[in-house]
Amino acid sequence: MSLIAIDLDGTLLNHQNEISKENLSAIKNAQENGIEVVISTGRAYFDVKNICKKAGLSTYVIGTNGATIHSKDDKRIDVTTIDKNSVLSILQWLDEREYYYEVFTDKAIYALKKHREHFHNEIQILKNSNLDEKMKEIVDVAERQFDQFGYVLVENYHDILNIEENFYNILACSFDQKKLIEAKELIKSMDGVMAVSSADHNIEITNNNASKGIALEKLATLLKLSLNRSMAIGDSNNDLSMFKKVGYSIAMGNAKDEIKEICTATTLTNDKNGVAHAIYLYLENIVLQK
Q1: Is the entire prediction scored with pTM above 0.85?
Q2: Which of 66, 132, 171, 199 has the CB geometry, 3.0–4.6 Å to 215, for a possible disulfide?
């Protein structure tokens, strides 16, 4: 047996943040053929569960960029947390420089009211500006970020640090590329954490032992599945670690060229059911030919 790991944003979800009927049908077809399907995303587990419930979909879930793994029946299989002292240092640094940031825990996505309002206003100003197509897409992706389930707004970062929950991921956002580079350099200088990007306006910070690839390897070992015969589908930098673990890596048609270049193949875009297209080709050419 093998598995299929699928990213959410820009991959399984279309621009309406929905799983299409075609993609859903393809996933269920794969499951009926004995393939384990895994949602592998930067989103929090409770957010993914909400999306899957609406679609009538049941899969294993790798959440918050590999920091959590959950079974199909909601059991937590594995967690990799960020040390609280590291969280304090990172949030203090981000707050002093007025980044918009979100902190992912067991129960919620925490964000500061003032930073969220500022970032939202910045998005609206940019939307009303004369932007090129690339910048329009970046702004649209940033706005869709607010459709996530489970936000809790607080007054300051100390309110976040005072909660008794595991810290899994810190998402920092800016439309200023210099600020993002500065944040990446900070994380590189710190022990125990690393950063990847799921979009051009953000970095996502986790424990350096947490990645989609590491989590996928853990899950495959647990389920005694072959990664050499497995497939991963994605579109962003935070998918690279799982692409390296599988025999068949598939870039979405809407992925950047540098992502497409390192993958086995490229499928259609997320608005043209690229996931379904990749799954059917995989079933036809890899799984069903024995």
Answers
A1: yes
A2: 66
